[in-house]
UniProtKB/TrEMBL annotation:
It catalyses: Endonucleolytic cleavage at apurinic or apyrimidinic sites to products with a 5'-phosphate. It is an enzyme of class 3 (hydrolase). GO terms for cellular component: cytoplasm. The keyword Nucleotidyltransferase does not apply. The gene is nfi. The lineage of its organism: Archaea, Thermoproteota, Thermoprotei, Thermoproteales, Thermoproteaceae. One of its GO terms (molecular function) is magnesium ion binding. This is Endonuclease V.
């Protein structure tokens, strides 16, 4: 069982390693997502080209699910299947979109920030619902400091909450995500989600000592 106080301290410590800086030139963008079924966590990493928003690569990781969802501690549940899928990619993306929040988090360290710090790569949180902050027009404001911690955009008429994970600025993150909105979907993360649903058809029988499924590809 997760020790919440210890987990908070980890988040507070690692949040100091978040880097805010302009994005580099971006040719490819990744998307990370996880879905669950029958005690298993299905992690998917996808890569798409920015110029035509076409998929380049998809990687899967199927793991035994060992922790329930606890609000504001999503990373401790999902970072393992996400990173295991990401590490299988042959074509590492320039920027990673994560299904979850980054700085729009009570401790400024959601799962997108956690992954960005661990990998040392640009990450952006893209979420369907608000976790923390007050909506003021398109801005998401930290009620305790008055700082802007995220943006609210619409893709296909639906709200999406955008926040920096690490190694990006909010302006750059928002502009990139808006560019990736196509037919009502933010392609990298929504495509990753679709593949998590497809992955659920896989019923692995063998797992390694760390709880990851032994797949044949």
């Amino acid at each position: 069982m997760l020790n919440l106080e210890a987990a908070k301290k980890v988040q507070e410590l690692l949040s100091k390693r978040v880097v805010l800086k302009p994005l580099p030139p971006v040719d490819t963008v990744g998307g990370l997502d996880v879905s669950y079924a029958s005690g298993l966590a299905y992690g998917v990493a996808v890569v798409v080209k920015v110029d035509d928003i076409q998929p380049v690569e998809v990687a899967y990781s199927i793991n035994k699910s060992v922790m329930p969802y606890v609000p504001t501690f999503l990373a401790f549940r999902e970072i393992t299947p996400m990173l295991r899928a990401y590490l299988k990619l042959r074509n590492k993306p320039d920027v990673i979109l994560v299904d979850g929040h980054g700085l729009a988090h009570p401790r400024r360290f959601g799962i997108a920030s956690h992954i960005g710090v661990v990998l040392g790569r640009p990450t952006i949180g893209v979420a369907k619902s608000r976790l923390y902050g007050e909506e003021q027009g398109e801005a998401l404001i930290d009620p305790s400091t008055g700082e802007e911690i995220g943006r609210v955009i619409r893709c296909g008429g639906k709200k999406r909450y955008i926040s920096v994970g690490s190694h990006a600025t909010l302006e750059d993150a928002t502009a990139l995500v808006e560019k990736l909105c196509k037919n009502g979907e933010i392609v990298p993360v929504d495509l990753a989600h679709k593949h998590t649903q497809l992955a659920k058809r896989i019923k692995p029988e063998k797992f390694d000592q760390w709880g990851e499924a032994l797949l044949d590809y």
